[in-house]
Amino acid sequence: MKDLPKHKGLRNQLVKIVRDKGITDEKVLSAIAEIPRHLFMDSGFIDFAYQDKAFPIAASQTISQPYTVAFQTELLHIKKGDKVLEIGTGSGYQTAVLIELGAQVYSIERQKELYEITRKFLPRLGYVAKKLNFGDGYKGWPEFAPFDKIIVTAGAPFVPAPLLTQLKIGGRLVIPVGDDVQVMTLFVRKGEKEFEKHEFGDFRFVPMLKESQK
Ligand code: SAH
């Protein structure tokens, strides 16, 4: 597990690419400049870590494209101390970005293998989530609700109702919605039953699936 000056240099180039694609939030860009993404990937893919691309991780899943991570994080408007629910821990890269921004992260992963790998890996890098769970994110995490922010990192065929109900008033849910292609969608909770919806164009994610996989 090494993070060398050459990796830092490659990260700065990646930040430039992500900035050129339209990300302006300096805190999000600094998080990308800080986090050693190559360590979140299987060693065979390390050379690709600082390209702006998604790559395979364990259990046939992917580490999201840096631009996508930045785009979703920017939409969340993370403030220090925000209580954030993440659905789809995966490699933990997005989790690390949220922690770097000062969020208290509660993250759920439905693949047991990935959950086990990431649960051990993140603290070794110094990224300590508030809670990680192996389970089905369609249900949210009622025990710890409500959340300031909720982020879904898999393609959701529909918006799971529990995620909306577990959002604080004033809270934000960022979720890619669709089957083959997903529309990045932001919900802002305005009142008990009132949600504002904004759509931000097409993205491609691995599917959000039901029930957890041992
Ligand atoms: N943020 C991760 C993205 C991983 S891809 C990263 O950048 O590494 C999406 C992840 O969502 C996968 O790990 C997949 O197993 C998980 N997932 C899919 N359906 C889920 C569900 N219902 N509940 C929780 N996690 C789910």
Task: Characterise the protein shown here.
With 214 residues, the protein is α/β, with parallel strands linked by helices. 29% of the residues lie in helices and 25% in strands. The chain contains six helices and nine strands; from the N terminus they run ααββαβαβαββαβββ. The strands form two sheets. It has a seven-stranded mixed β-sheet. The longest helix is centred in the first third of the chain and has 16 residues, at 5-20. The mean pLDDT is 96. Bound molecules: S-adenosyl-L-homocysteine. S-adenosyl-L-homocysteine binds next to β2, α4 and β4.
Strand and helix layout:
Blueprint: H1 5-20, H2 26-34, E1 55-56, E2 62-63, H3 66-76, E3 83-87, H4 93-100, E4 104-109, H5 112-124, E5 131-134, E6 147-152, H6 161-165, E7 167-177, E8 182-189, E9 195-203
Helix pairs in contact: 1-2
The structure holds S-adenosyl-L-homocysteine.
Helical run tally = 6
Query: Could you tell me the number of beta strands?
Result: 9
Class inferred from helices and paired strands: alpha/beta
Largest sheet: 7 strands, mixed
Spatial arrangement of strands, main beta sheet? 5-4-3-6-7-8-9
SSE ordering: HHEEHEHEHEEHEEE
Helix proportion: 25-40%
pLDDT averaged residue by residue: 96
Bound molecules: S-adenosyl-L-homocysteine
Radius of gyration: 16 Å
Weakly predicted, low-confidence segments: none
What portion of residues belong to β-strands? 15-25%
Kindly, what is the distance between the CA atoms of the first and last residues, rounded to a whole number of angstroms? 27 Å
Q: Can you tell me the overall shape?
A: globular
